[in-house]
Write a structure and sequence with these properties.
Layout: H1 25-40, E1 45-47, E2 57-60, E3 72-93, E4 96-114, E5 120-126, H2 128-140, H3 151-167
Antiparallel strand pairs: 1-2, 2-3, 3-4, 4-5
The structure holds nickel (II) ion (NI).
Residues 93-95, 135, 139 line the site of nickel (II) ion (NI).
Length: 168
């Protein structure tokens, strides 16, 4: 089932996600629905907060249009170490439609999480996967990528969205 993706300025996007403590059938169904939603969008990542679910859960696939899809699922993920700086060019987000901006990110991150069976994971990511992980883990902390750009650019986008909403 495809889920509705919340978009800025929906206040739910500011929610700090609650930890998942029950990896059950309902969670697996949510993961399947989120995957369908992400691939259909299409996007490279999706956090549960974006579909209105207060759970610390994210999925990603940096090659979403490939025939060889490789869905990654992280439960209760956190960045335990990071290193280096990289400019994430033209970053975008399914919850921030029609807008892209450059964002400063760490070049490498060390992530701890559980996989969808609840097995502990600890791995390093670099470059694009590291950017996607930082972006999605930000969502689980109530942060959008536009919170990491200049307030001037953010206000310009916010004004554009308000204008569009009034025009409806
Ligand atoms: Ni996003």
């Amino acid at each position: 089932m495809e889920l509705k993706i919340l978009t800025f300025p929906d206040n739910f996007l500011k929610t700090k996600a609650s930890p998942v403590d029950n990896i059950d059938g309902d969670l697996q169904k949510l993961i399947e629905d989120m995957a369908e939603t992400m691939y259909r969008a299409p996007g490279v990542g999706l956090a549960a907060i974006q579909v209105g679910v207060d759970k610390s859960l994210l999925i990603y696939d940096i090659n979403p249009s490939d025939e060889q899809r490789r869905l990654q699922v992280l439960i209760n993920p956190r960045i335990v170490d990071s290193e280096g700086r990289i400019l994430s060019e033209n970053e975008g987000c399914l919850s921030v439609p029609d807008f892209r901006a450059d964002v400063k990110r760490a070049q490498r991150v060390l992530v701890e999480a559980l996989d969808r069976e609840g097995k502990p994971l600890r791995f390093e990511a670099e470059g694009l996967p590291a950017i996607v992980l930082q972006h999605e883990i930000d969502h689980l902390n109530g942060t959008l990528f536009i919170d990491r750009i200049s307030s001037l650019k953010r206000q310009m986008y916010a004004r554009r969205v308000k204008k569009k909403m009034r025009a409806r």
